[in-house]
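Problem 12. The chain below contains 142 residues. Write out its predicted structure in token notation.
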Amino acid sequence: MFSSNNKGWLFFIPATKLLTSSVWADFPDSADGVRTIQWWNTKNPCEKGHEQEKTKISFILNNLTLGEFTREDQVRSQDNLADQLSTMAEAVPVPKTYKQAMNSPDSAQWRTDVEEELRNIDDMGIYEIAPLPAGQHVLGGG
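Solution.
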């Protein structure tokens, strides 16, 4: 289940009857066709016998109110605000090349952000870095 209060996923752990959230989730297919989940919550690991009251399924279910739509209204207002901000953000010049980013007044922040993104890509194993084949051009590089 996608977690609405943060970036990531919300998982129910049947063995402990607890809910936990994680930014990363791996949904590999097993040999028998049953999907399994690998849990990677390093910030708040679930230890046997250590239950947090607010993550118990009984706590969550007992706090649900049917017909209560304040969160839906909140999400709608946040979506509207995000639309307004994205319209305003189009007026802010964003560097199109690495060279432009490094020559901008915010070059230190650009470098930090790029390094963080590259670490995330590496940690998640999304891409494999390879040399550019001879005669080929970098996408968007002309």
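Discussion. The chain has two domains: 1-92, 95-124. Students who got a different answer should revisit the alignment rule from Section 12.3.
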